[in-house]
User: Fold this.
Amino acid sequence: MKKILPLSHPQHIILGLALVGIGLILIYNDFYFFWPPFAASFLNDDLIGGIFMIIGILVIKWALDNRNKIAVNRNLLIITAGLLALEATAEFSHGCVSGQPHMLTAGFLEVIVLLFNFSIIGKSKKRNY
Assistant:
């Protein structure tokens, strides 16, 4: 596989694709979140999906770039962790309130992607040596 597609950071590309996918789902579904009522309009805003897409594209761009800066990687992965934690919390909250299993499943999947993100953070360089 490395001969066909030589990538230095395939985990970052997988994570970026996951973020872009979540962003697309959030952009195309304007009535996904309904609880709590005061936050429904904020959570359903296309800006939230757009942020997921932008961060996902930036993570992919970082992985494909030749000048991979450690500080940029660290900041992108920290922002990703915050976004995934917010999304997983919203999914679990909705799953508990509505009793819809697909929301609980989505929450579990986002926690798994969050753990994958933590794995990447743990393996990434922390500083220039």
The radius of gyration is 16 Å. The mean pLDDT is 90.
